[in-house]
Design brief:
13 helices, about 280 residues, mainly alpha, two-stranded antiparallel sheet, about 10% strand
């Protein structure tokens, strides 16, 4: 990768990020052809839900992999990868419709035996973490997920998460939800001790979390020049307890959309749009 012109950018708990040695992301709304493509090297496949990793590497990756592409051992293994990735994004409220669409497409190719294999061998117990993404898929893709799969996983899912997942919508668990949560993802704690560890980390973040935050501020365009992102931990805690705080990722998109100009200055409604958004302050 270094021979291809990539250099190390930063390390995350689940992957190492490399970026092109030359090139800076242009400031624009949405995708852009000149945006450099980063590479994430994953040494394992897992998600923190919310703090303890759920690792499914052994189920997906062969013990002795061959050079090049290695196929998934089964369609159920592929589904477990999609569902765990979606679960991590739901926990962090960054899920996208694309995640749900991929799961719905794959489910069309799964037989009852495939689903049984997924539920039985994905972990020592039924994969409780798969229930929220499956319920979310079922909300928008009718008949995509067998009812017996949801019923089986609901019996293994922690009660709080089981109840919350029944009311979740794409807006609530995506970047479309503008306001920060005080305790994001706490409902994913599978036990009281896990919840206690979560609260402890929220009060006093470990060194790893502090380093990851510093790396994000340094490397992510949408966090640069944001007072909230650079504020001290206790200042953010006190502010979040006294007033509602918008999410920096959502706010970046809103501001970019307001600043974007149409391709034709004479487009109908442009003046009205500028007048309407000029009074909005976030």
């Amino acid at each position: 990768l270094k021979e291809l012109g990539y250099v190390h950018s930063f390390d995350h708990w689940r992957h190492r990020v490399l970026k092109p040695a030359a090139g800076e992301a242009p400031r624009c709304l949405g995708e852009h052809r000149d945006t450099p493509i980063n590479i994430e090297l994953h040494a394992h496949i897992g998600e923190r839900l919310p703090i303890t990793p759920i690792d499914i590497t052994a189920r997906i990756c062969p013990r002795e992999g061959q050079p090049g592409s290695n196929p998934y051992p089964s369609v159920g293994a592929l589904m477990s990868h999609l569902l765990l990735h979606a679960a991590g994004n739901i926990c962090g409220r960054t899920v996208r419709l694309l995640h749900l669409h991929d799961i719905a497409l794959l489910s069309k190719h799964m037989t009852a035996a495939d689903w049984e294999e997924f539920c039985a061998t994905c972990s020592a117990n039924a994969p409780w973490w798969a229930l929220p993404p499956l319920r979310l898929v079922a909300r928008y893709y009718h008949d995509a997920i067998p009812a017996m799969v949801i019923e089986k996983l609901a019996r293994a899912c922690p009660a709080w998460l089981n109840a919350v997942s029944k009311r979740q919508t794409l807006t609530r668990v995506s970047c479309s939800r503008l306001w920060l949560q005080r305790l994001p993802g706490i409902e994913w704690s599978p036990s009281p001790p896990e919840m206690g560890r979560y609260l402890k980390q929220r009060i006093r973040p470990p060194a790893e979390k502090v380093r990851e935050r510093d790396d994000m501020i340094r490397t992510q365009l949408w966090l640069r020049q944001q007072d909230w992102a650079a504020a001290s931990h206790w200042r953010r805690v006190i502010t979040a307890l006294t007033r509602r705080v918008p999410r920096m990722d959502a706010l970046y998109v809103v501001r970019a959309a307001m600043e974007a100009r149409p391709t034709r200055e004479g487009a109908s409604g442009y003046a009205d749009q500028r007048a309407a958004t000029a009074s909005v302050k976030l």
